[in-house]
Amino acid sequence: RPEGGREEPRWAGHGVVRCSRQLSPRWRELLLDVYLQCPWGAPNTTSISCSLADVMSEQLAKELQLEEENAAFPEVVAVAEGPFITGENIDTSSDLMLAQMLQMEFDREYDAQLRREEKKINGDSKVSISFENYRKVHPYDSDSSEDEVDWQDTRHDPYRADKPTTTPRKGFIGKGKDITTKHDEVVCGRKNTARMENFAPEFQVGDGIGMDLKLSNQVFNALKQHAYSEERRSARLHEKKEHSTAEKAVDPKTRLLLYKMVNAGMLETITGCISTGKESVVFHAYGGKSATEDKVIPPECAIKVFKTTLNEFKNRDKYIKDDYRFKDRFSKLNPRKIIRMWAEKEMHNLTRMQNAGIPCPQVVILKKHVLVMSFIGQDQVPAPKLKDVTLSSEDMKKAYYQILNMMQQLYKECNLVHADLSEYNMLWHDGKVWLIDVSQSVEPTHPHGLEFLFRDCRNVSQFFQKGGVAEALNERELFNAVSGLNITADNEVDFQAEIEALEKMNEDHVQNHGKKLSMFSNDGDPPIYDE
Ligand code: ADP
Ligand code: MG
């Protein structure tokens, strides 16, 4: 790769030949050929700063690759140690994998070149042309880390945006001459700008709210139409790529990821699919050998692949969309990164649960949107969901008390609310209940955390009451037992109203003091709501 002046690229003394793979003699020969036949004349060997032996040195190549990978995935490397991440011991015997990696590299370079051309042609012109359609990589497939945001810190973020104000039902605000109706041009224009947030995530709307943009109805409608047709087009393109494979949910990139895991020996074989949901696909695999001695890979693993299509992502955002403090940050992330965030969340939540001793899958490794964990079940047969097993009344009672205990632990020790707890996400294995599916779990101080907890309690309570456990608390008693709060309302409506009032109080406090009401002495402490 020549570096230096634009007109006259020079290799000698400047060029670096990087080789990050163990090359076969044939490849070395070829590469050397190319090197010697460089179009800008034979290299001045005397000025080459390192010997050919150095150039071909595997050591140097590894260092370079490591450097590059550290720059690309600083966090993931910290999370997941192993041969497969650092690039050591990568088995390069698979031509298919090498070819796919080369192709990806080529596509990225091709796109970068397109972008450069685009920039050159457009210059400062007000009218610009776009080469978007010619790009090889879907915009959101690209792994550029330019706008990488350390999402884990989001909850410590200072309060950012204001809640958007709405026009009251009556359709106007103000009095007398100062009356402002909902048809007011400015109000309407701002509202239209805000409504652009609802467009598909890949439709970049810019910071219209920040610069107080006012869109007329006509412009807004035209943009809306355009956004819809773009969304359909993008979905079509994406679908074509995805549905061309046998395993519908696994796109080429994911397949490559899985392939690498097997290739690195971390997984023995991937046997098949256990479940295909709207948001994830779960596979069974036999565990392989661990690179490090302190980490043991379970004999059987479950691989949860979070789906990366936009549609699924849109269904998931109910857990964050009302959390207006996150909105700013989320709008900056592209969908692929948000999906990775769910996978990361699941990993962190499982780790917290593991530390508290709650029966749950043990995290093996996280790589992008693919989470490998221990398999709950045996011989490729997953443990049945609680809804699918028939338990004796003795076991049913045992399961109930165990869940009550787990919910309390989850809240008090892990500082979490499951937020999707039901007989669908509890497995019965080894005579006890195991909790799974915690990517959506939130901390109790989430603006809707207590409502989620109440819903969990209702699911659990109803399941066991129907299942004939006479001791099962009703949802309100269960809620108090888990949270340690003492809400006294004796009917559901009032109870929920009190929950919402508590949440609001907490949020108001955040607005006024920039801090949650709860006092966290450490990360694991539950919140304490008081006046
Ligand atoms: P989703 O968000 O799609 O509901 P889940 O995490 O609930 O994803 O997984 C879907 C299904 O896959 C579960 O109902 C369960 O049957 C199976 N499953 C998930 N994780 C494991 C695991 N670690 N061991 C065994 N089965 C699992
Ligand atoms: Mg589930």
UniProtKB/TrEMBL annotation:
TM region(s), chain numbering: none
Residue segments, region Disordered: 140-176
Main location group: cytoplasm
E.C. number(s) listed in UniProt: 2.7.11.1
Gene Ontology MF, one: ATP binding
Keyword terms of this UniProt record: Antiviral defense, ATP-binding, Cytoplasm, Immunity, Innate immunity, Kinase, Magnesium, Metal-binding, Nucleotide-binding, Phosphoprotein, Ribosome biogenesis, Serine/threonine-protein kinase, Transferase
Compartment(s) of residence: Cytoplasm
Residue ranges occupied by any RIO kinase domain in the UniProt entry: 239-484
Cofactor(s) needed: Mg(2+)
Matching Pfam families: RIO1 (PF01163)
Subunit structure: Interacts with CASP10. Interacts with IRF3; RIOK3 probably mediates the interaction of TBK1 with IRF3. Associated with 40S pre-ribosomal particles.
Protein name: Serine/threonine-protein kinase RIO3
Species per Swiss-Prot/TrEMBL record: Buteo japonicus
Species classification: Eukaryota, Metazoa, Chordata, Craniata, Vertebrata
